[in-house]
Amino acid sequence: xxxxxPQHLISAFxxxxxxxxxxxxxxxxxxxxxxxxxLLFTTGLLVASGTYLHQPxxxxxxxxxxxxxxxxxxxxxxxxxxxxxxxxxxxxxxxKQSHLTRAQEFFERYGARSIVLARFVPIVRTFTPxxxxxxxxxxxxxxxxxxxxxxxxxxxxxxxxxxxxxxxFVRDNIELILVGIVVVSVVPIAIELLRARARNR
Length: 201
Fold this sequence. Notes:
single chain; globular
């Protein structure tokens, strides 16, 4: 569970670890279970309190945005290169066809906007850029929406955590808040696993 504990990850790996996790969750198949939302929110909290992170907020937001955008670029290029073969890949411990199918449905429903919207949906945000690549979405269009979505998500969630971290109640109960964030970040993954199990049955 320490892998899903944002404060543990930040205390152990610092800003470099945050960037690596955001990159992996944004564009690598193995990153879907990582705590992206809760990690960024906690990053904002800790920047506000000066705990573990001592960089200015603007620099953290900039670097996290770059990591998120770069991750999606890798996901898009991977999907474009692998193509339809990815949909024939058998289920493995860290890869489920149901995740890819869900992302495809999301992409088909919202079109180019899905690149922005998926940023705020756990699991879907990992697979949507891959589906965009498989679907041969126009590269310039993808880059535009990727930059917008990556910046909105990275800066928005981090800044939200930063300002909430300056509220006395949140600052005085930061451990309780972090536990709540971890629980909230795990819930979507648990729901998706239960849905996949129900579909299999």
